[in-house]
Design a protein that fits this description.
The protein has 97 residues and is mostly helical. The chain contains 6 helices and no strands. It comes from Eubacterium album.
C-alpha cells in the first residue's frame, strides 16, 4: 500500500505556507516548524537543483554546497523524472544575492 502525500494535513500546511507574505515571516514560520538540520537540508537540495540547472558538475556542486553525490543524484533524478516542481520554482524565484 503506497502512502499519498496529498492529505488534509499537508493541505493545511501548504495553506499556511501560502499565507506567508515576507521572507521574515518565512524565517519565523520555518524556524518553528523545522529543525535547523531539516531546513538546511531542504535549502541544500534547492541549491543543488539550481546549480544542476546552471550546468555545474557534481564535483563543483559537492565542493560548493557540501552535498554528497547521493544527494546530488537524487535531486538530478527529480529534475529529470519528477513533477517539474524545482523548475517551476527556479523560473519564478528572485534571489537577493
Amino acid at each position: 500500500m503506497s502512502k499519498s502525500v496529498r492529505t488534509k494535513e499537508v493541505d493545511h500546511l501548504f495553506a499556511a505556507i501560502l499565507s506567508l507574505e515576507t521572507k521574515e515571516e518565512c524565517y519565523t514560520f520555518f524556524e518553528d516548524v523545522c529543525t535547523i538540520n531539516e531546513l538546511l537540508s531542504i535549502s541544500q537540495r534547492f541549491e543543488v537543483a539550481k546549480m544542476l540547472r546552471e550546468g555545474k558538475t557534481y564535483l563543483e556542486i559537492s565542493e560548493d554546497t557540501g552535498a554528497s553525490t547521493a544527494t546530488i543524484s537524487r535531486v538530478n533524478r527529480s529534475l529529470n523524472y519528477g513533477n517539474d516542481g524545482y523548475d517551476m520554482v527556479l523560473k519564478r524565484a528572485k534571489y537577493d544575492d
